[in-house]
# Entry
Amino acid sequence: MSDIEIRDDRTAGRLEAVANGQVVGRVEYFVLTAPRRALVPVHTVVEPAHEGRGIAGSLARELYAVAAREDVPVAPLCPYVTAWIARHPDVSAPGDPELLDAAKQWLRDHPGRF
# Structure
């Protein structure tokens, strides 16, 4: 994975894995603001040619690192990130039910976003 750079495109709501100048994976997310601020991953994608290299896991780990640096929780709606949490309880915690409910409502209120 040393040839992969992970960057946060906050404006687009994507944490991107980049190899040789090309985006090869991403976590799409939004920033929830109420009832309190949280990062909400919605979808994880790795290009087929790059699957099996640990890119999705590195993206999930970096999402939690970003949240830690910003001192905010993660409210995971993405099935991959939710499964990753179960395998890495040392790095992550399950989402707060109140934040998860608010995140689901946000998605219902913004149907074209994801």
The chain has a mean pLDDT of 93.
